[in-house]
UniProtKB/TrEMBL annotation:
The lineage of its organism: Bacteria, Pseudomonadati, Pseudomonadota, Betaproteobacteria, Neisseriales. It holds the Pfam family Hydrolase. Its EC number is 3.1.3.18. It comes from Deefgea piscis. Specifically catalyzes the dephosphorylation of 2-phosphoglycolate. Is involved in the dissimilation of the intracellular 2-phosphoglycolate formed during the DNA repair of 3'-phosphoglycolate ends, a major class of DNA lesions induced by oxidative stress. GO terms for cellular component: cytosol. SUPFAM superfamilies: HAD-like. This is Phosphoglycolate phosphatase. GO terms for molecular function: metal ion binding; phosphoglycolate phosphatase activity. It is an enzyme of class 3 (hydrolase). GO terms for biological process: carbohydrate metabolic process; DNA repair; glycolate biosynthetic process. PANTHER family: PHOSPHOGLYCOLATE PHOSPHATASE. Pathway: Organic acid metabolism; glycolate biosynthesis; glycolate from 2-phosphoglycolate: step 1/1.
Length: 226
């Protein structure tokens, strides 16, 4: 066990790009929203590069096909949001799959009675039904979605809220995520953080996480649970 992992007693997980590969369902809904706006479809990889700051940012970026677009509530964005919401809710779990070893590792952590949080920027209206459809809605002691508290990741708030609900100090709550928002949120909250290399974040090695893991199963080794 390394120094960073020695005092960890609880874990918080990001959802998209960490526990599940959801990009095909996100891209389908995004492209249907583009079609409704008279726009041509984008490649899945392009949509993946827009994921990480919640649904409103995703819709704004997808409609503009630009990383710089922000949600302003313009008519076209509001229409796009309604369209994306309807299409994504209709197909949350068509092609969404757990990454390898996720389910077995979550089961092991629960077996060892490690308190678990889910901390995602995905809004509750998608997160809660998706967790149910995936069969992991009862795996977490607390679910913090993108609109559960006032500020999303990269704010410290979702992890501070998770730590207080789990009744653990943030210094002993490990965050595991795939993007810069996960690392920034963890650093702001005082949580140790692991980055996964297989998700939607680009250049994770440069994020300055405590460690980068290439398979979810490596978490067990990091926590000395293997
Ligand atoms: O919905 C998003 O933007 C990303 O969600 P995540 O925080 O689970 O990666
Ligand atoms: Mg993510």
């Amino acid at each position: 066990m390394n120094e960073a992992s020695m005092s960890i007693i609880a874990c918080a997980f990001d959802l998209d790009g960490t526990l599940v590969d959801s990009i095909h369902d996100l891209a389908r809904a995004a492209n249907l929203a583009r079609a409704d706006a008279g726009l041509s479809p984008l490649e899945s990889d392009r949509v993946a590069s827009f994921v990480g700051d919640g649904a409103a940012s995703l819709v704004a970026r997808v409609l503009a096909d630009s990383h710089d677009a922000e949600y302003t509530g313009s008519d076209i964005q509001r229409e796009g949001m309604l369209s994306f919401n309807a299409h994504y809710l209709a197909g949350l779990h068509i092609a969404t799959r757990f990454y390898p070893k996720v389910l077995a590792t979550l089961h092991l952590l629960r077996e060892r009675q490690v308190p678990l949080a889910l901390v995602t920027n995905k809004p509750e209206r998608f997160t809660l039904p998706l967790l149910r459809e995936l069969g992991i809605d009862t795996h977490f002691d607390v679910v913090v979605a993108g609109d559960t508290v006032s500020n999303k990741k990269p704010s410290a708030d979702p992890l501070l809220y998770a730590a207080s609900r789990l009744n653990v100090p943030t210094s002993q709550l490990l965050m595991v995520g795939d993007s810069i928002n996960d690392v920034l949120s963890a650093r702001a909250a005082g949580c140790p953080v692991l980055a996964v290399s297989y998700g939607y974040g680009s250049d994770v090695e440069s994020l300055n996480a405590d460690a980068v893991i290439h398979s979810f199963a490596d978490l067990c080794e990091f926590l000395d649970l293997a």
